[in-house]
Amino acid sequence: MSRRRFIGTTSCATISSTTLFSSILNLGVTNSLVAGTKASFNHPDDYKALVCILLSGGNDSFNMLVPYDNANYNIYAKTRSNLAIPHNQLLKLGNQRQDGRQFGLHPSMPEVQQLFNNGKLSFISNIGTLVEPMTKLQYLRKQKMVPVGLLSHADQAQQWMTAIPQTRSSKGWGGRMADIIQSGNSNKNISMNISLSGTNIFQVGDNAIEYAIRASTGGSVGINALQSNAPLDKILQGGVSSLLEHQYKDIFKSTFAKKIAHAQHNHLEFSSALSNVSSLQSSFSDNNISANFALIAKTIAARNILGMRRQTFFINFTGWDHHDMVLQNQRSMLATLSKALGEFQNALEELKIADRVTTFTISDFGRTLTSNGNGSDHAWGGNVMIMGDGVNGGKIYGNYPSLALNSNTDIGGAIMIPTTSTDEYFAEIAQWFGIQDGDLEYVLPNINRFYDPKSKDSPIGFMKT
Q1: CA atoms within 13 A on the CB side of 417
Q2: Which band of pLDDT confidence, cut at 50, 70 and 90, is reported for residue 111?
Q3: Can you give the pLDDT at residue 266?
Q4: Quick one: what percent of the chain has pLDDT higher than 90?
Q5: 46: domain CATH number?
Q6: Count of domains forming the chain
Q7: Nearest CA to 345 among 308, 316, 386?
């Protein structure tokens, strides 16, 4: 095999480009850390993980978490018209009340209902991207700065991942946390940021990047020819190994070969770690989202073998842009999400680590309360979920807004202005994860506009201390 053919073959045929090249890029940055920051997690039990689920497209979350008491349900039903879920189909949430109101869940979410009622999951209501605190009047009078590209899919999804809504950025707050904490992991080859969805902004920092794995392959991805026992591949293996070990004078060829060799080494290390953990008794459904959660659970089970004390995981669950057929689409998609969350929680309890793994949702934005005929359009504030034994569960945090049209949170077009910022949400997660107060502004550049990191109080209060 010629060198030219080797480069073309490894780039296009024997390598899964999105996954392996993400891992290749990781190799050059994992040892570089933010100046002056150190992390040390030496005890095997000092482990924490975050699992971020992006509901890409903008989840209509006011049909996920719905007023249940008669008075507020009637307001909801009037505003949502043909998008309203019948009252007798809602799944009531325990005895949780907010200002005398009761709440229910979309009928496709029985697992989430059980998690909530068992104190393992909570909601944060009417949350969204904000540059600074803002009222409806201030918005209408243009007295405050609004996020760049408000109501835009690309901009708003990016801002949930970067936590910098006043500008477009390619660095995420998960990546910036890794800049600080990564040094606490003894493994310096594989990033603490593991993506089940390829390249993403959330996990990219100044010095950190994601390590991509795939549920379809059961883990990391390497060079197929080096893993196969097929006769032709056996012949190729010697040639590929020779090309990887060759001392190239050309700097590009030399760097490329070294990166491929290191990526293959990391793939073998990662695969070996996963193969040495016991199979879980907990079952997962046969769909891509549950398969992603199953692989995350297996990776967490291998944490000690991999030398990990802190990890983040990222899943992009696409398809939530329901301008049409919102009721039909949510019926199946929320069922998939709810079942996967229940399965993942069961697996974490089997691993006896449910108190050290926190799973949370993000989405581009909420959607309009009013119907466009058969769906809903881009909006702003919405509702999110956070799950784990480390969560003060069974509660609704933030301020669930009145769903009446022209309320003090409706800025026009049935669009809710957020009353809780993403910065407050992320800050509490970051604090639980181990980010010190002095580093919080590096992770979340706008945090001081919403919360004093020196405060003795939590930003919102949904995490146990």
Answers
A1: 21
A2: very high
A3: 80
A4: 76
A5: 3.40.720
A6: 1
A7: 386
Weakest mean pLDDT among 92-96, 219-223, 348-352: 219-223
Does the residue 235 lie in any domain? no
Sequential DSSP letters for 56-124: ET---TTTTEEE-SHHHHHHHHHHHGGGPPPGGGSEEEEEEEETTEEEEE-TT-HHHHHHHHTTSEEEE
How far is Cα 375 from Cα 58, in angstroms, rounded to an integer? 12
> 3-class SS at 359?
strand
Q: Is 420 contained in some domain?
A: yes
Cα 173 from Cα 183, distance rounded (Å): 17
The pTM of this model reads 0.88
Burial 175-209, CB ≥16 within 10 A → b, else e: bbbbbbbbbbbebebbbbbbbbbbbbbbbbbebbb
For 127-181, write each residue's pLDDT tens digit.
Answer: 999 999 999 999 999 999 999 999 999 999 999 999 999 999 999 999 999 999 9
Beta strands (DSSP E) in 331-416 are 357-363, 382-387, 396-398
465 pLDDT band, cuts 50/70/90, is confident
CB 65 within 8 A of CB 396: yes
Whether residue 386 is contained in a domain is answered as yes
* Domain interval for residue 169: 39-220+285-449
* Angstrom distance (rounded) from CA 119 to CA 191: 32
320, 388, 317, 297: which is closest to 53 by C-alpha? 317
- Helix or strand run (H / E) with residue 290: helix 288-301
Whether 27 is in a domain gets the answer no
